[in-house]
Design brief:
mainly alpha; two-stranded antiparallel sheet; two-stranded antiparallel ribbon; 7 helices
């Protein structure tokens, strides 16, 4: 009975593990490890967070929660994409030695990003924009202000911060998963777990 349980766990894990496996027409190819002369499958399983069922005090609180879910689902992909694009830009910038080349590359990347995303990002609501600012901090480890400052300079960052403040936003907003942004973090984890 115990062997059957172990085999079921391995099969289940193999079907849900990530990058290290390949599917063939006869099954999955997984990594193995030799332990005390035995060859055992080695499967990395992503971490799953378990949350209790969400309970609401009233209909208003439930409506606010699902509004937050909708907003996170809309802007979280942009934050992940921002991390990816920023990493690509920083890798490319590391290859340049001349400051003129760096500036030229940043301007080119800026134009490409604007043409690709400007129309979509203009359609975000104020709350979605504020949320995106915080999620960029979550994904990149830097506030949006710092990202702009590093790429475009202090003057440009100050100008965009002034514009954001006029509209009630703050590009220097930090993401606080254990405090003010606890609900946002839970929603993200639930989305990544496939629960939302």
């Amino acid at each position: 009975m115990r062997k059957i349980l172990i085999i079921l766990i391995i099969v289940f894990a193999a079907s849900y593990s990530s990058k290290s496996q390949q599917f063939t027409d006869k099954g999955y190819v997984v990594e193995t490890r030799v332990v005390n002369g035995d060859t055992l499958p080695h499967i990395n399983i992503r971490e799953i967070f378990v949350f209790p069922p969400k309970k609401f005090k009233n209909a208003r609180e439930e409506k606010e929660y699902y509004k937050l879910v909708r907003n996170v689902k809309k802007v979280y992909p942009y934050a992940k994409l921002a991390r990816l694009k920023l990493n690509q830009i920083n890798k490319k910038l590391a290859t340049f030695t001349d400051e003129k080349e760096k500036k030229k590359y940043i301007e080119k990347a800026d134009k490409a990003l604007k043409s690709e995303f400007e129309a979509e990002l203009k359609n975000l609501s104020m709350n979605q924009g504020k949320l995106l600012i915080k999620l960029i901090d979550r994904e990149t480890g830097n506030t949006t202000f710092d990202v702009i400052k590093d790429l475009k300079g202090s003057l440009t960052a100050f100008m965009w911060q002034s514009v954001a403040r006029l509209f009630g936003s703050n590009l220097k907003a930090d993401y606080d998963p254990d405090g003010a942004d606890k609900d946002v973090e839970e929603v993200i984890l639930r989305i990544e777990n496939g629960q939302l």
